[in-house]
Amino acid sequence: MASKFVVKETKTGLKFDLLATNGQVIATSEVYSSKAAVQNGIQSVKNNAPVSELEDQTAEGFSVMKNPKFEVYKDHAGEFRFRLKAKNGQVIATSEGYKTKASCVNGVESVKKNAPEAAVE
User: Fold this and answer.
1) Given pLDDT bands bounded at 50, 70 and 90, which one contains residue 2?
2) For residue 3, is pLDDT > 80?
3) In what order do the strands lie in the sheet with 69-74?
4) Which residues are registered as beta bridge partners of 14?
5) Model pTM?
6) CA–CA gap between residue 20 and residue 11 (Å, rounded)
7) pLDDT per position as a tens digit, 34-64
8) Integer Cα distance of 28 and 58 in angstroms
9) What is the domain extent for residue 97?
10) Pick from 59, 85, 60, 61: which is nearest to 71 by CA?
11) DSSP assignment of the chain, as one string?
12) How many structural domains does the chain have?
């Protein structure tokens, strides 16, 4: 199976999930109000993911990177997560929680690799 973006309806609009080749969700969007907005969000992930640097906010004295970028951080539950920010600083995709930073970084690499070629369903 190839990686793909799957668009879903929610109670308040539309969102997308980026699925890896194994079918696991590797990134999710926020809720958009229209189909056009969701398509723009997907295109933004396809464009920004491969050129984004990694900003490790869990490292002491980390370097702040320019947008677009992936931010790796720890959530309130102590899990590692990432968010992809577009050039304008807007969050365009987020991850689930990971137990280890290495797994989270692997998730970032998976998005960078899979997003540009992913089909849209």
Assistant:
1) confident
2) yes
3) 53-56, 69-74, 80-85, 91-94, 25-28, 14-19, 4-9, 119-120
4) 9, 32
5) 0.94
6) 25
7) 999 999 999 999 999 999 999 999 999 999 9
8) 21
9) 4-120
10) 85
11) ---EEEEEE-SSSEEEEEE-TTS-EEEE---BSSHHHHHHHHHHHHHHGGGPEEEETTSTTPPPPPSSEEEEEE-TTS-EEEEEE-TTS-EEEE---BSSHHHHHHHHHHHHHHGGG-EE-
12) 1
Number of Cβ within a 10 Å radius of residue 9: 9
CATH number at residue 46: 2.30.29.80
Residue 1 pLDDT > 80, yes or no?
Answer: no
Q: What is the pLDDT, as a whole number, of residue 32? A: 96
Instruction: Identify the CA nearest to 96 among candidates 77, 115, 113.
Output: 77
